[in-house]
Amino acid sequence: IVKLNHNELLSYPNTFDQTLFADVDQAFNMGAVAVGATIYFGTEESRRQIWEISQAFKYAHELGLVTILWCYLRNGEFKQGDTDYHVSADLTGQANHLGVTIEADIIKQKMPENNGGFNALKFGKTHKKVYEQLSTDHPIDLTRYQVANCYMGRAGLINSGGASSGESDLAEAVRTAVINKRAGGMGLISGRKAFQRDMQTGAALLHAIQDVYLCNEVTIA
Question: Is the dihedral of CA 8, 45, 75, 90 positive or negative?
Answer without folding.
Answer: negative
